[in-house]
Amino acid sequence: MEDRMVDLLRHAQKELNVKPEILCEGICTEEMYHMVISGKRFFDRITIKRLIARIGLDNAMYDNYLHYPDYCVWLKRTRIINAILENEPEKAELLLTTYFEADKNLTDSRTNIEKQFEVFMGLQVLRVKSQDEYEKDAKVKYIEALKYTVPNIEDVASGKVILSPAELCMYIECSRRMNNTSMDTMWDRYVWLISYIDNSLYGKFSKIKVYPKLVVCLYEDIKVYINNGELIDFEGKLEQILEWCENAFELLREQVSLLYMTEILEIRLELLKCIGILGVEDSRIAETEKYLKVLKELYSEYGVSTYMTNDAYLYRESGNFCIGEVIYKRRNMKKMTLKELSEGICDERTIRREEKHISTMQKYYFEKVFDKLKINPNYIDTGIVVNKKEQLELYQRLCIADNAFDYMKVKELLEELKRQLPGHPINKQIIKRIDSFTRYRTGLISAEEFLQALKDALSYTVEIEVLDGNLDEIFFTLGEMLIIYMMSEAHRNMRNYMEAYKHIEILWNWCKELEEEELESGRMGIYDFIMLHMSNLLGDMKRYEESNNISTKLIKMGLVYKNSCSLHRYLYDQAWNNNQRKLEGFDYYKAMERCIHLSQLNGDVSDELFYKKDLMGENTT
After folding, report:
1. Which residues of the chain fall below pLDDT 70?
2. What are phi and psi of 417, to 5 degrees?
3. At what angle do helices 567-581 and 605-615 cross, to 10 degrees?
4. Is residue 60 within 8 Å of residue 499, measured between CB atoms?
5. From the CB of residue 303, how many other CB atoms can be counted at a distance below 10 Å?
6. Smallest Cα–Cα separation from 57: which of 180, 214, 213, 209?
7. Could you tell me if 525 and 513 are in contact, meaning their C-beta atoms sit under 8 angstroms apart?
């Protein structure tokens, strides 16, 4: 929602002490910015997201519920980006052309930011189609694209403008193609660029979009001088590049990302061997070779390019939902009439027109309707309802402790959260879910008591009978989906596979709807955790082929969209299924070795130990 993002922008700009004139350079006037911040005028969503990106916040994370016009723009852009990432340049080209030819009033497609998007995406399409043709146009086109929002490119080096990750990528591509650049000039430019990122406002989610790419560009460019024997202070510069390479590697590893990972690993290996030749042996060589081997094998097996073929990922956004569709589905799921939903809020026609995409509701009515439907209108990442920044920070600390299985810390933070949070049903649901899970994992309640607690938690926002219904259309929040998943997983752990299937089937059907609409990659986080559970469960039910089909699809998705989070888990499902089927020629040891190596790459220690125990026959489940 634009109002929420304006609030976010206002607070971040002041907290980070960013001068409005620098933030707005090339995008809007300072006067316009102040009018928007004070609520007198409005920015379009794309402009707000660019400003948010410039102050270092990952704009892919800030949305979720969009009015129909903005949802259409998001959907069209997502399909263009996905077609490029999936190496379908002809499809992307058609979608790009259609996007800018149709609905111009709806998409406001001629703003400078949108013109930049058009040129940049056109270049990525060309890069996928033909590297030679791409290089012919790259310099001119990157300059053209960047100048739409950074009219004076030379101002970047002087600090008169700050750049979003997408703009910085364009600047990198422009600067590396400057003519008659000496080795010293080139080196100094990259040192400055690394420093720019290190000293920028970028958070880790923004930094990962450009830092690994920059290291790869640096090494590609400096290798020309290495090969020509022109590199002065050979050993010192290589050690410096290796340090930057290590930073990129750890950044990718922390975020379980494969963006330029193969290239970073190859650079790491070359540098380690080179420095080893100069007299220093390094144990990281074997580790790097191991990671490269497993990744290259997977890319080859699944027909995905081993190396980055485009930078369309820079414009990817989180999965968003259309407000009108959410209201319609949620209202019908709760068996509410328009009259019941609108009572005490607005006229029935206001909601009906939103559902039918005729007009959009004002913020006040939208928030009241969502509140009545037990949905957080500011569904930004967490779903929790807060009225103070400190409450959100406390909840984030709780989530970190929960993910680390630090149950003593969870209990301590949970008690504090209970005291601080507003008594909203959504907050009660979250607290009940975390509290019951902690008690179950520490043996304080039985599986049956845990299941009842989960039902109680779900009932804060949704009638439990919904799970037994045959609804054609549903809308669950992420928090509700998590509870339904946990109910299914609890039954699975008790080997009640049919009950587990019954609970998760409603979410699996929702995933199938995403597939029909080609939106599964646009909502990959939610889709992935549901499908991973389905893969596990179907294997337990001896539906091995169905389980393997899910794993195969999700492994390829992870490789295409450069997300390594669940790769080793899907590979384990395949290995387990194939071992159970006693497939002729299947090498279980090799399959498990892959799982171990990928879990090590991600830093998933608990999974690594599980796989090693499995190989030794120590696992009992």
Report:
1. 1-4, 59-63, 102-109, 180, 227-235, 277-281, 378-383, 387, 389, 469-471, 618-621
2. -65, -40
3. 20
4. no
5. 10
6. 209
7. no
